[in-house]
Amino acid sequence: MRQPDIEIYLKDAEHQAVADWLGQAIGPCTPWQQKGQTFKCRAGEVPVTWLPKAVGKWHSLFLESDATPWEDDLACAQAAFAALQVEVRCAPGGWQEEESDEQADRWLRISADGVEEITWRTG
């Protein structure tokens, strides 16, 4: 089932490189608008939010639409890794507010090693 939005975390990625990748994958990006620590743009018709160092060295990329080429976070994360060659993390499925902390710490790591489930304590 297609997720209503997509959020992935990228390590050591430059937001301009991410914008270039999104421009190729979704559609041309508008110039980034900075609001505090957050950067926003549109890739084609998709609203994009980039939060540098959201969790330590990890940058958050949030695509606020289901109109992306990817079915879910994992498909997007794998495409991001292939294009940018940086480690990417994402939740294993849609996140629910009522999930336990243990469930919330389950993440997928996408790297040169492939996809593996890890425990990542972000809180």
Overview of the molecule:
This protein is an alpha+beta fold and about 120 residues long. About 20% of the residues lie in helices and about 35% in strands. It is built from 3 helices and 8 strands.
Attribute tags:
single chain; 123 residues; alpha+beta; 8-stranded antiparallel sheet; 3 helices; 8 strands; 22% helix; globular
Oligomer: single chain
Number of helices: 3
- The computed structural class is alpha+beta
Q: Could you give the distance between the termini?
A: 28 Å
pLDDT < 50 stretches: none
How many domains, as an integer?
1
Number of strands: 8
Radius of gyration: 14 Å
Topology overview:
Elements: E1 6-11, H1 15-25, E2 33-35, E3 38-43, E4 46-55, E5 58-63, H2 73-84, E6 88-90, H3 101-104, E7 106-111, E8 114-119
Antiparallel strand pairs: 1-5, 1-6, 2-3, 3-4, 4-5, 6-7, 7-8
What is shown here, in short?
This protein has 123 residues and is of the alpha+beta class. It has 3 helices and 8 strands.
